[in-house]
Amino acid sequence: MNDKKIILSAAGLCKSFGSRKVLEALDLEAAEGEVIGILGRNGSGKTTLFKILLDLTAADAGSVTALGLSPDGSGRLRGLIGYVPEKPAFHGFLTVEETLAFRAGFFPAWDAAKAAELCRKLELDPKAKAGSLSKGNTAKLAWICAAAHNPRLLLLDEPTSGLDYLVRDHILNGLVHELAEGGRTIIISNHRMGEMGGLLDRVCVLGDGRIAADHSADYIKTETFRVCARAGTVPPGPGVKEISRAGSVAELAVFGRDRLEALKAGGLPDGTEITPLELDAAFKALLGD
Amino acid sequence: MKSLILLQLRKSRLGFGVIFAALLASVPLALALKTGPMSPRDAVNLAMFYWALAGIPLTALILSGIAGSEAAGGQAAMTEQPLPVAQYKLLLSSLTAALLETAALTLAAWAIMGFTLPLEHLTKAQGQVYSFYLFGLAYLAVYGFALSYAFKNGIAGAALAAAAVAATLLPLGSMAVFQSFHFALLPLGALKPAICVMALAGGAGALKLLSGITDRKVISTAARLAAIALLLAAPALASMAALRTLNSRARQVTLPVADYHGFSALDAYTGAPPSDGTMLVQKPFTGEMFMIGENGRRAVIKPGGETRGAGFTYLFPDMTYAGARTARGTGGETWVLYMNSYRSGRLLSGGPDGFTERAALNGGGIPDLTGGRNPGILYRMPDGIFYSAMPSGTAGLEWKKIGATNAQAHAYLMNKYLGEGAAAEFRSDGKTLAHGSNRWTIPGALGTNVPVPGLRLADGPAFLVPAKSSAGYTTYLCRPGAKAEAVWPGYFSPRVNVSITPDGTAWAKTGKSNIAAADWAKVASQDFKEEFLDPVFYIITRNGKALPPVKAGDIAKKTGVTDGRLYLLRAAAGSLWFNAGDKYLVKADAGNTRNFVLWELPHTAASNAWRVREGAVSATFNGILIAAADGVYFMDWDGAQKKIY
């Protein structure tokens, strides 16, 4: 990441709603072309973080620079970012075609041909009223709106949440396509990060209002392990998280080969099984950290 | 912004369409329901009048309330806020759409009325309401939107907006009406637009701050909330503060007490100088009337008073104007007759040291003071006209019936004046004027042969008589022991247009009338203020000297008094003193009025309801008394001024 150009930088972000602190001195950087997964439990502040990055919500403290601009309330920043909200909504009285035409007026780099092509690919009827679209088709429209102006930065807030497999595939294929075009930086929050596994460069875990853990995707794929042992023989600790327990057998996630080697050196009981950890299980374990 | 506004218009087209259709439908409905004698045009105008009065303001509130509450809702946040436009601009586009819809309704109603008001004449109050109408609509829409957005509730926002608008426009409207009816004490010409700007810009400013809190989730600090509250309340607070100031200033206003009959020809037959160094002053806010002398000594004639306390702010202060007639008695006392209410008067006598009530005139008639060497009182009753001379000492009035008609009463008074030597009369030849042993022959035809009021010159009673010849009217001065002397060109008579100063100087004036043809259109306009009339004064000093005509155009121009309100106050020692429009005391060289000095007078409250013939200034022997906006002043003939009340 260090030799790539940083196009998004957030430093010391704080945000509270009343007495509830949502973000506390959060730091985050994204390099050009990087795909970052933001992992966090419900209410951990993922949407708030996105809204601050989009200049929709003002941070109480801290700074953001994205694509050379800082949030100033003018909305200019949103013109450079493709955004798929968690719950996309459109004016029900406009057709898909009208919605796209309306949005085109706000984005100088809007590519009408690309929007039409995406409609065709995603099987979205341009004449359909936005108010009559199913949840899946609404998500498709949101994706088209986010992608049609060829943004260098995409913020996707649970883009596949509640969608069936087919629509999810459409969206994920779209993402792959955008990545294939190169240069796109994508930040995704998703409860099912496993389905993004192959796309991600980095996973940041949002907890206690800050980035609690920041791992490369390779690290999660190659350096997380499942350790099954008799309960109580391997105590949870830094880098060791109990995933489940069934009777006298405990299942633990171990993060980092060094940690695993240290456990081994400490003497693992006989019969202990060590296998690579599946992505979903790794993300689940990270969430529990 | 344009596409956003179009979007907002499209969002609200159903609601707006229904209301617009209702407006259009009210035309055939009005025609169907009209009563017999009403013309179709009147029926439609009446329907549009109701729309203008209630329908359109209510619609402005409804449309803006709906738009404001919708803008604060989650749907708008999800659909529109992701657009690369400032959230505040989204609100403005929504507000603009509501304003445009209100404007479209207003324009439609206006078009249905034929782009004209169906009123031949606007009263002052109607004119003020009319002048506020569009601002009021815009104000309702902006506040309806902002408050509905703030409370996320269209009904609460609309109700609060209506209250805010009422709290601003009621005081502002009442002040405007008050000032048009009474006096201009506040610069409403500047205040009204300032409050308009404050309301519209303040509403927009508050909306921006609210958008920060509601949309951008900026921390709602006490300072930010206070700023929003202040911005929204500022127009109402300013309006109410202005009303309070108006009340406070109106309490201080003093005016000279005017003759309740206005100018009367009978006033010319006076036996005494019109001033004894005092002035009759009123405070219309409380209804108080008093006499005040040069030294500030005050004698209350009518106490007046307030029922709600001296600090109370009235929405529309009720002015009580005092009308009175005065006459000087043979003993130097002043007689004052004023009307308490319709056909109920009081007669008092006294001076700056105090007044005593001499009679209560509650008989249902109309009393009137008369002049002459010994003043009297005339009482027009249903059963005839009665007269009483002013009693001496503490005696009461002694009425005697002097006739059943005004002509009989007039004849009685003229005989009285002739008998007292206060007037001269024409002999039967119509050319000879007689007064005592003096006889004057007047060339030319007389305009009237009623007794001629006398002037009190140093060498005895003299008379001004206008007479007509082929060249027009000429006014003659008839002095004791001398021939009739032609002094002034034109028709001048103390019964009509000659005034007397306290020092006995008689004067009259004319305006230059050779107006260029190109200026006649200007003359016909309402704005005409005789600005190119050049006043010329004709003056006879107390020693009987007729001064050459005195041109005072330079004084009028310099002082900006172009409405003819230039009055002579004194002529002495080669100098003339003028009251220039209650603004300046001017001292001019009688031989060359281009040489003059002027002193600014304290601000006077020119009443629109109560005109005093010669302004708020009353000359005495030593200077002038000025009934000003904040009290009574005395200024000597060299411009030294002091407040005496």
Task: Give an account of the 3D structure.
The complex is a heterodimer of chains A (289) and B (645). With 289 residues, chain A is an alpha/beta fold. Chain A has two domains: 213 residues, Rossmann fold (3-Layer(aba) Sandwich), CATH 3.40.50; 65 residues. Chain A contains eight helices and 13 strands. A six-stranded mixed beta sheet of chain A has the order 5-6-7-3-8-9. Chain A has a four-stranded antiparallel beta sheet with strand order 11-12-10-13. The longest helix of chain A is centred in the middle third of the chain and has 17 residues. The model of chain A has no long low-confidence stretch (mean pLDDT 85). Chain B is α+β, with helices and mostly antiparallel strands. Chain B has twelve helices and 32 strands. In chain B, strands 13, 14, 15, 16, 17, 18, 19 and 20 form an eight-stranded antiparallel beta sheet that branches. A four-stranded antiparallel beta sheet of chain B has the order 1-2-3-4, with no helix packed on it. Classes of the chains: A alpha/beta (289), B alpha+beta (645). Chains A and B meet through strand 1 of A and helix 1, helix 4 and helix 5 of B.
